[in-house]
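Whiteboard transcription, Tuesday session. T.W. wrote the structure tokens on the left side:
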């Protein structure tokens, strides 16, 4: 539509590790098929069992990451739980110009940066569990954390929760299927956010002169 400032939209999904945000975002993205694009971040974090390079993340060394920063490769990057994570710029702009819903699974710092860069195009969702105990249980069941890293993630979770007012939506992921339905609805609706329209153009078009 020629009266859209940008064809696609950006959907930022944040929330504590273990909230289920990645599984939710990936599931909705898959359902939406061609209409969506899931941004794969670059990280210096060691690969977990079962993770694949180029699918879960692009796993790189700290030196490579620093070089990418210097070369302006990232739209945003941040240090999270002691590792570096970054979102590449080029693929996102390509997906936006094709009219896709771009899913960004990034932390609260990333949300700030992306919102500043694309104020009209971003919709954001904060995903969390119904309480702290559920989060601890999920992280323990995942089996990827030591007691020490679990503690770091819990402290960070509380800090992140304080940023909820900055998000458009708060999604409490209790029943996966229900949460998925909400996220799908938000994703599709993000394409018609008022701020995405060039309203002068639209009104002119609507009046027919
Ligand atoms: P994990 O190590 O559990 O995969 O991710 C840790 C945190 O880093 C999560 O909150 C995740 O959303 C965030 N994250 C992943 N990729 C990026 C990124 O490219 N930028 C930012 N700012 N955060 C990211």
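and on the right, the sequence the group agreed on:
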């Amino acid at each position: 539509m020629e009266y859209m400032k940008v064809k696609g939209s950006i959907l930022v999904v944040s929330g504590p590790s273990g909230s289920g945000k990645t599984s939710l975002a990936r599931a909705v993205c898959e359902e939406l098929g061609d209409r969506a694009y899931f941004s794969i971040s670059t990280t210096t974090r060691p690969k977990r069992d079962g993770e694949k390079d180029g699918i879960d993340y692009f796993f790189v060394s700290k030196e490579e990451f620093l070089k990418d920063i210097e070369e302006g490769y990232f739209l945003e990057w941040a240090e999270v739980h002691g590792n570096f994570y970054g979102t590449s710029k080029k693929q996102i702009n390509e997906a936006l110009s094709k009219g896709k819903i771009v899913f960004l699974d990034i932390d609260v710092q990333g949300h700030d940066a992306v919102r500043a860069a694309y104020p009209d195009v971003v919709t954001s969702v904060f995903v969390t569990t119904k309480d702290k105990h559920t989060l601890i249980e999920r992280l323990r069941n995942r089996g990827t954390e030591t007691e020490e890293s679990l503690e770091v993630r819990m402290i960070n979770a509380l800090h992140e929760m304080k940023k909820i007012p900055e998000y458009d939506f708060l999604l409490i992921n209790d029943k996966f299927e229900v949460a998925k339905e909400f996220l799908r609805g938000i994703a599709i609706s993000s394409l018609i956010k008022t701020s995405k329209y060039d309203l002068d153009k639209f009104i002119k078009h609507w009046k027919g002169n």
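Someone added at the bottom: The mean pLDDT is 95.
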